Amino acid sequence: MKKNIIIKGGLALASVLMIASCDDFLTENPQSTYTTETFYTSESDFEYAVNALYQALNVVMDGPTSNPAAYSGGNAYGMFRWPSVRADEKSLYHGINFYDDGAATFKDGTQGATKDYIWQYMYIMITRANSILDRIDAFEFANSSKKNELKGQTLALRGWAYHQLGIYFGGVPLITTEISVDETLKIGRSSQAETFAQAISDYKAGMALLPDRYTGSDYGRIGKMATAAFLGRLYLFMGDTSNAATYLKQVIDSGLYSLAETYVDCFSEAGEGNGERVFELVYIPNVNGYGQGISESWVNEGYTRGDEDHIYAVRGSSHAMIVSGDYIAEFESGDARANEFKDGIVNTYGSDCPFCLKFSHYTETPTAGSYWGINIPLMRYADVILMYAECVGQAQGEQYLNAVRARAGLGSWTDYSSDWTTALRHERKMEFGFEGLRWFDLVRWGIALDTMNAYHATQEGGANVTTGAVQNNMRAGQELFAIPQTEIDLYDNATLMPQNPAYQ
After folding, report:
1. pLDDT tens digits, 85-129
2. pLDDT recorded at residue 251
3. How far apart, in whole angstroms, are the C-alpha atoms of residue 6 and residue 159?
4. Which of 167, 250, 294, 370 has its CA at a distance of 20 to 30 angstroms from the CA of residue 414?
C-alpha cells in the first residue's frame, strides 16, 4: 500500500505540468501552464493528470513551499492544521507563534501565506481538473470503465475543491472549463450557495461514474462512498439534514466501513486501510518528496524520539500545536481518547505545554521531519455516523453516538434524552480534536462567535485572568476568511471581486 501509484504518478507529473507563477493561480492561462495541447496523447497521460490532482491535495494539506509545483514535506502553512489553529482546541496561553498570520487570534487580514496557498491550490486542482474534463470525453479509451473512473475521480476532486473554497471564503469565481487570463478576469465571485451548488453537481456526477471504493494498489483514490460522505458533510454544513442523511446513510448501508477497534488505529501507521478510513491521504516514509511533515508540526520543539513511553517527533516544531488544558479537562474519566494528548510537558515555551499525539504513531521511524509516512484521514467512519446521528435525531441516532463512546471505553450517554444536541456536540469535540473539524462545526452550528469569544476570555484563550484583560476577539463575519489580497489586486474590480465584509 505504501508504494501507492497515486503519489508516485502525481509527483512525477509535477515536473511536466509546471506552474508558471505562484502569485496568480486563478488567472493562469492553462495553455501555458500545462501545455495541454501536446500532453494528452495516451490513456497514461490522463492517468498521470488525475494523479496530479492528488499530488496537489497532498501538498496543500502538508504545507507548500513558495514553489507550488514542489513538495515541501512539512511547512508551517499546511491546510490540515489551519482550522485547528482557528478553533478553541489549542492554547494561546504560552504566546506561541503558530505561523498563522494571526488566524489563531482572529487578527488575520487580507494577506497571509496559508490563506493564499489554500485559495491557490484549490484553483490548481480546479484548473487541472478542467484540463482533463475538456478532453477526456473525446479521447477513445480501450476500456470505458477506466475512462469513467478517471473522469469520476476528476469530478469528485473538483467538487471537493469548490466545497473547500465555499466553506473557507464564501462565494468564489466558478470556472469549469479552460479559459484565457482575460476571460478569467471577467468572471466575478458567485455566491456561497452557487459555489456549493457547483460542488454538489460535481460530487453527484463523480459518484455516477465511480466504484464504491478503491483497494490494493489504487487505495487512496476517491470512490463513490467517500464522495457520498463528503457530499453528506457539505449538505450538513448547509443545514440540509434531509439530503445529508440520504448520502451518509448510503455510506453506512454499503457495509464497507466500520469503527476501528481502537482509537489509536484511527490515526496510526499500522491502522492504515482499516474500516475507519473512508478517505485518507497516502504518504510514504523516508523517501524524499513522498512523506509528510504534519506529524512533526504537531509536536513541541525540544522533544525527541524515546522520551518517556510515547512516540515523539524527530525534533519537534517551533510552530507546535499546544493543546488547551481546558480541552483536555473536558474528557470524561476513562476516556481512551484523552491518551492522545500528552500533558505536563516542559519545553521551549515553558511548563505545562500539552500536545497532540494522534499523528505520531509510526511503524517505520521517520529519519527527518518531513519523512513521516503516516497517512492523514480526511474522512473517518466515526464522522459519518455522528453526522448521520445529528441528521436523524435521538431515536435513530443514539446507537451511533454510543458506538463511538463504547470504542472510547465509555458507557452510554445518560443525559441526551434531555439535551441531545449538547451530547452530540460534546462527542464531536472530543472525538475529532485537532482533525480540522471543530472550527467548521462551530460555524455551521451558528455558535462560532459566542464560543470563540468565551474561549478568548479564558487563560487558555489568551486572557489575563488577573486583570481581566482580553487580548483577542472574533468579529462578526470572521466565520469566513478574507479573500487573498493577491486576488483582489489582480481583479482590481470591487464589483467582480469584493472582499468579505469583516475584512473591508
Report:
1. 999 999 998 777 777 888 999 999 888 878 888 999 999 999 999
2. 98
3. 19
4. 250
Rounded Cα gap, residues 384 and 393, in angstroms: 14
Consecutive H or E run containing 356: strand 355-356
Measured between alpha carbons, how far apart are the two ends of the chain, in Å?
A: 48
12 exposed, middle or buried (CB, 10 Å; 0-12, 13-18, 19+)?
A: middle
Cβ(116)–Cβ(484) below 8 Å: yes
In which band, very low, low, confident or very high, does the pLDDT at 311 lie, cut at 50, 70 and 90?
Answer: very low
The single residue listed with the C-alpha cell 500532453 is 39
DSSP-assigned beta bridge partners for residue 322? 355
The CA dihedral of 185, 187, 193, 199, to the nearest 10 degrees, is -80
Region class of 196: left (phi > 0), else alpha (psi between -120 and 50), else beta: alpha
The answer to whether 423 and 404 have CB atoms below 8 angstroms apart is no
User: For 464, phi and psi rounded to 5 degrees?
Assistant: -90, 105
Q: What is the mean pLDDT of residues 332-347?
A: 83
Rounded Cα–Cα distance for residues 122 and 174 (Å): 12
Nearest residue to 115 (alpha-carbon basis) of 171, 72, 77 = 77
CA distances from 208 to 150, 223, 248, 278, 470 (A): 12, 10, 16, 18, 51
Using alpha carbons, list the distances in angstroms from residue 381 to 226, 236, 278, 404: 10, 16, 6, 10
Contact 52, 71 (CB under 8 A): no
pTM to 2 decimal places: 0.92
As a three-state string, the secondary structure of 270-296 is CCCCCCCEEEEECCCCCCCCCCECHHH
Q: Which helix (H) or strand (E) holds 341?
A: strand 341-342
CA 105 to chain centre: 20
State the DSSP string of 363-375: SSPPSSTT-B---
64: confidence class by pLDDT, cuts 50, 70, 90: confident
pLDDT in tens, 203-230: 999 999 999 999 999 999 999 999 999 9
What is the per-residue pLDDT across 181-193, written as a single tens digit (0 to 9) for each?
889 889 999 999 9
